[in-house]
Specification:
The protein is of the alpha/beta class. It is about 45% helix and about 15% strand.
Amino acid sequence: MQKVLFVAHCVLNTASKVVMFSDEEMAEEEALRRRFLEAAISSGVQLVQLPCPEFSAFGANRWGHVSNQFDNPFFRKHCRELLLPFIDQMREYLAHGERFEILGVLGIDGSPSCGVDYTCFGNWFGNFSDRTDLNEVLNSCSMGHGSGIFMQVLKDLLSEYGITQCVHLHGLFASEPEKCMGLLT
């Protein structure tokens, strides 16, 4: 039986990510990503890359965002349109359960889009140049329990198509590396 795992875009393509300036944070994330991919490949898991809604909406030169900024009908519609073909793929794999096992979806915890158990929140909006409280606003960003908007839309679609019980979401998170490694065994 072939095992199939749907993964957030940047699990396979870090070029799509917002530019990070913390070398330590980038190295920690890259080490976990490589460890996960090596384990997936050696376990024979087939990886299906989901699209990146942030890259496709805002491009490579975007600022970092918080989930509050993406929680609007326009971004949710964009996510839904990107995800519908993948829902069809999931349904087709599930229709052939004798051949395929969907291990789930792997998101990136902390992401405003692809966080599964954790996402970033903040009261970010408006023009940067005229703000007298910019540092306060930037410091208001916090990590909290919750899903990013892309994963929220995916959960809604899984429910809408009646496959919530068949496809589970998991988050890749540097401070909890073993949380997702168990999916591959």
